């Protein structure tokens, strides 16, 4: 069945910069499916777009819209069971970064594949962005970037360990291996973890604590809060931070970065990548060119053509894929 077009955004409401809210909260929803209809209806009424994930363990997502629309939705979410302490990080964009609104039911709001892990039972110690530099500059601290390889590639903290994972599901096995290596060296270091917005660290530090590691810390509010609050001249951050919307990356002050998205593999590409002969908008980039067949690239090229024609008609192509949902 052909999907209905995305709801129109009121031009007057969008005359000011679009407000973006990245949010998450671990709580216990007995019936996430019962929450979904009212949440989706309010998003559509308020002209809010993006993706929200609902699971028994809580809510996670990134949404965008007018300031009033976002405020209405956040008020609604905070009235859900035990959601008054909802974690939200705000930023702005000059244009709507999403094409439609999706509210999805999931087994986990950030997938680690550890069904018995409960962040509500205990996580690492939160560290304010203003105290983060001192912690990670300590030579006894092992700093771990919990994000996936394509995210780490465009930016990370100086000296951080890159697990080189392609999925958060790989993190537990990597962590156990890394811990065994450290113990073999006779080291019991402090561990400091960070991620985009804080949600992955809730699980990764809870996992470390469950594994018996005592000194575990994580950056409160994630990289986004650090970039928002720490001046560039005092920062230990290097590069840009991948975000899960059409901005693709941001820098200090949450200013839009220089990366765009390869529509074939969903990885970020920089200016050098776009100048490479293997790059074709919507079809391939230097990283995925060898991973796809000629037949696949032909399909991507046709999809890109259809999207271009839809844009010329002022429509959203129904086959267009959004950026990845918030997994920060």
UniProtKB/TrEMBL annotation:
Keywords annotated in UniProt: Oxidoreductase, tRNA processing
Residues in Rhodanese domain copies: 137-235
E.C. number(s) listed in UniProt: 1.14.-.-
Residue span of region Disordered: 289-328
InterPro entries: Rhodanese-like_dom, Rhodanese-like_dom_sf, TrhO, TRHO_N
Pfam families reported for this sequence: Rhodanese, UPF0176_N
CDD domains: RHOD_YceA (cd01518)
Top-rank taxon, per record: Bacteria
Swiss-Prot/TrEMBL catalytic activity: uridine(34) in tRNA + AH2 + O2 = 5-hydroxyuridine(34) in tRNA + A + H2O
Principal EC category: oxidoreductase
Protein family per UniProt: Belongs to the TrhO family.
HAMAP family per UniProt: TrhO
Its job: Catalyzes oxygen-dependent 5-hydroxyuridine (ho5U) modification at position 34 in tRNAs.
Protein name, per record: tRNA uridine(34) hydroxylase
Lineage, uppermost ranks: Bacteria, Pseudomonadati, Pseudomonadota, Alphaproteobacteria, Sphingomonadales
């Amino acid at each position: 069945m052909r999907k209905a077009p995305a709801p129109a955004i009121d031009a007057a409401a969008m005359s000011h910069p679009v407000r973006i809210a990245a949010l998450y909260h671990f709580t216990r929803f007995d019936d996430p499916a019962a929450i979904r209809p009212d949440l989706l209806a309010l998003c559509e009424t308020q002209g809010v777009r993006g993706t929200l994930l609902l699971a028994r363990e809580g809510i996670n997502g990134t949404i965008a819209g007018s300031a009033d629309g976002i405020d209405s939705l956040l008020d609604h979410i905070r009235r859900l069971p035990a959601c008054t302490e909802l974690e939200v990080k705000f930023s702005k964009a000059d244009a709507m970064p999403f094409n439609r609104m999706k509210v999805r039911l999931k087994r986990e709001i950030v997938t680690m594949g550890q069904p018995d892990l409960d962040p509500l039972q205990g996580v690492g110690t939160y560290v304010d962005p203003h105290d983060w530099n001192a912690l990670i500059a300590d030579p006894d601290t092992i700093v771990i970037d919990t994000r996936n390889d394509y995210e780490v590639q465009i930016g990370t903290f100086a000296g951080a360990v890159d697990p080189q994972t392609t999925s958060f599901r790989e993190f537990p096995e990597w962590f156990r291996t890394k811990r065994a290596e450290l113990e073999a060296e006779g080291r019991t270091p402090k561990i400091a973890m960070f991620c985009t917005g804080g949600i992955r660290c809730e699980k990764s530090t809870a996992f470390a604590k469950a594994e018996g590691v005592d000194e575990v810390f994580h950056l409160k509010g994630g990289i986004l809060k650090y970039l928002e609050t720490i001046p560039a001249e005092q920062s230990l951050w290097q590069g840009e931070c991948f975000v899960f919307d059409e901005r693709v990356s941001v820098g200090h002050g949450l200013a839009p970065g220089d990366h765009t998205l390869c529509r074939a593999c969903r990885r970020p590409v920089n200016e050098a990548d776009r100048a490479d002969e293997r790059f074709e908008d919507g079809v391939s980039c230097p990283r995925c060119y060898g991973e796809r067949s000629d037949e696949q690239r032909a399909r991507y090229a046709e999809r890109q053509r259809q999207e271009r024609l839809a844009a010329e008609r002022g429509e959203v192509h129904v086959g267009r894929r959004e950026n990845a949902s918030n997994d920060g």
